[in-house]
């Protein structure tokens, strides 16, 4: 196995090698010598401060292939960046080569077939804009600048997840540059093992230059309930919500959040900073029908703020944008699936939310099941889908001085929730793999060995390793 662990400074490469790369590469090559280096290397999580030796900003498949070959020929470690939202910072690397797809954002919709081909560096805002032009929607992220690449390869939870399943469940094909620089298509009829592995196995198997998705008719307007109750009503709101989500139609996807109203001009000054428990849901279908069905979520107690309404679907996926701006918040996230939330766990969640070290901390609990759990665990790499809820501890803060206490709070909270779960985490909401358990093993369950075998077939040297890494079987 080749050792890509060697720390190689790009500056130490022989000049000819870099020159040759420059000559064949279509996009920009950015290094520490360039004035825009800091802006280009910036990731979503402000806490990650990796400095790649070189950033290869690809313009298309050709550039991706050239970048892979350049890295291989020079034994460089690589990181692959989609939109750079991953909180673990897996899109970047110190000293090595960042293969940056963030300029590859074209979305091509086929309105007749109701499908889209989406380039590997597009974000969900790009997809929503282009698909909604035809009254269609793709099951993707709820913040518009989140990347299609990382989100899809890790699963993908949308505001209509219970109707459509995860993003991977709507993936019908992928164009992939493999670790040896070759280019293949993967689907249910070509390279089926690779296609299966990419549905939840993350960026382990290759660089996806285009994703092919099935789309749904939706919008342009949908009903969104977003009701914020004062934190003193947390118990009442949560108990109601847990019961509300017990027997829901697939058309309703629902979250319970514990947050503080941000210091932002969008909110009345007297409410800013107040801690709240929010009940948020989107209805997939007629907005009027949705308004009726979601009304109970707005009547649990007297809300501090009710932001509910019939709004464009594109606006639903921009609702959180102003408060989660790239490069503004240090972030340390951990997540776990739980089968159910009993009284004991509910109190734990509320007590911990009340102890949140900063007002930017978000505890979000997503109701799952519906179409998600109708896909058997061996159908995709993702693994077990039986969890009724996903608990995500999204700890965020502004001041570096708070780093230690915020990380410690998250780890302790995670360990407590772990007692109520089967140990499966959602890698897309995970800053690291710390903790006593083998998180990869726990999460992929019975799919783990098969994933290791497929990794050995497509990437025997573990060239793609800056991710939720699956080591190749020997
Ligand atoms: C503000 C915010 C909102 C979010 N909202 C949601 C949400 O609604 N639903 C949800 O499910 N998740 C959500 N997430 C989590 C999200 O799924 C992950 O952060 C995901 O990694 C983002 O993808 P990206 O392409 O931006 O990530 P990046 O940081 O660019 O990459 C993440 C990983 O994926 C790999 N990768 C990225 N693109 C490719 C590609 N084309 N080919 C091969 N490998 C690739 C990278 O190498 C890296 O290992 C959110 C995260 C944030 C910070």
Explained architecture:
By secondary structure, this protein is of the alpha+beta class. Helices cover 26% and strands 22% of the residues. It is built from 14 helices and 19 strands. The strands form four sheets. Strands 12, 13, 14, 15, 16, 17, 18 and 19 form an eight-stranded antiparallel sheet that branches. The chain has a five-stranded antiparallel sheet with strand order 5-6-10-8-9. A four-stranded mixed sheet has the order 1-2-4-3. Helix 1 runs antiparallel to helix 3. It is globular, with a radius of gyration of 22 Å. The relative contact order is 0.13. The structure holds flavin-adenine dinucleotide. Flavin-adenine dinucleotide binds at residues 44, 80-87, 90-91, 101, 120, 141-143, 146-147, 149-151, 153-157, 202-203, 207-208, 324, 428-429, 466-467.
Summarize the biggest pleated sheet.
Answer: 8 strands, antiparallel
Share in β-strands: 15-25%
Counted up, domains total: 3
* DSSP summary, beta strand count: 19
Please state the CA-atom Rg, rounded to the nearest Å.
22 Å
Contiguous runs where pLDDT drops below 50 for at least 5 residues: none
Total of DSSP H or I helical runs spanning 4+ residues: 14
Label the structural class.
alpha+beta
């Amino acid at each position: 196995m080749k050792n890509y662990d060697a720390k190689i400074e790009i500056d130490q490469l022989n000049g000819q090698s870099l020159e040759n790369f420059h000559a064949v590469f279509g996009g920009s090559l950015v290094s520490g010598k360039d004035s825009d280096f800091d802006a280009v290397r910036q990731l979503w999580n402000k806490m990650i401060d990796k400095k790649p030796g070189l950033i290869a900003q690809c313009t298309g498949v050709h550039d991706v292939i050239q970048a892979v070959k350049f890295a291989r020929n020079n034994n460089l470690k690589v990181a692959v960046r989609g939109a750079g939202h991953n909180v673990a910072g897996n899109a970047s690397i110190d000293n090595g080569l960042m293969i940056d797809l963030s300029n590859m954002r074209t979305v091509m919709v086929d309105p007749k077939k109701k499908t889209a081909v989406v380039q590997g560096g597009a974000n969900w805002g790009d997809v929503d804009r282009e698909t909604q032009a035809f009254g269609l929607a793709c099951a993707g992220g709820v913040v518009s600048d989140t990347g299609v690449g990382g989100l899809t390869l890790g699963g993908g939870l949308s505001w209509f997840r219970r109707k459509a399943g995860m993003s991977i469940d709507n993936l019908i094909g992928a164009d992939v540059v493999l670790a040896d620089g070759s280019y293949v298509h993967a689907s249910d009829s070509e390279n089926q093992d690779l296609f299966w592995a990419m549905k939840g196995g993350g960026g382990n198997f290759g660089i996806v230059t285009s994703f092919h998705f099935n789309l749904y008719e939706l919008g342009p307007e949908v009903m969104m309930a977003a009701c914020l109750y004062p934190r003193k009503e947390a118990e009442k709101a949560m108990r109601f919500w847990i019961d509300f989500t017990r027997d829901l139609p697939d058309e309703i996807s629902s979250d319970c959040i514990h947050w503080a109203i941000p210091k932002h001009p969008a909110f009345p000054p007297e409410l800013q900073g107040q801690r709240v428990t929010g009940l948020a849901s989107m209805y997939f279908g007629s907005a009027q029908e949705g308004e009726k069905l979601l009304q109970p979520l707005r009547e649990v107690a007297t809300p501090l703020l009710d932001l509910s309404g019939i709004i464009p679907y594109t606006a639903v996926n921009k609702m959180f944008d102003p408060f989660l701006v790239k490069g503004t918040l240090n972030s340390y996230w951990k997540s776990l699936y739980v089968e159910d939330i009993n009284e004991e766990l509910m109190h734990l969640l509320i007590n911990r939310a009340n102890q949140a070290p900063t007002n930017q901390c978000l505890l979000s609990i997503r109701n799952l099941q519906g179409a998600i759990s109708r896909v058997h665990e061996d159908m995709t790499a993702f693994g077990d889908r039986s969890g009724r809820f996903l608990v995500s501890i999204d700890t965020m803060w502004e001041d570096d001085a708070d780093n230690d206490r915020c990380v410690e709070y998250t780890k302790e909270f995670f360990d407590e929730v772990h007692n109520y779960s089967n140990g499966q985490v959602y890698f897309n909401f995970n800053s690291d793999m710390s903790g006593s358990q083998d998180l990869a093993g726990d999460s992929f369950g019975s799919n783990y060995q098969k994933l290791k075998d497929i990794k050995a077939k497509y990437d025997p040297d573990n060239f793609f390793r800056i991710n939720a890494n699956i080591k190749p079987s020997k």
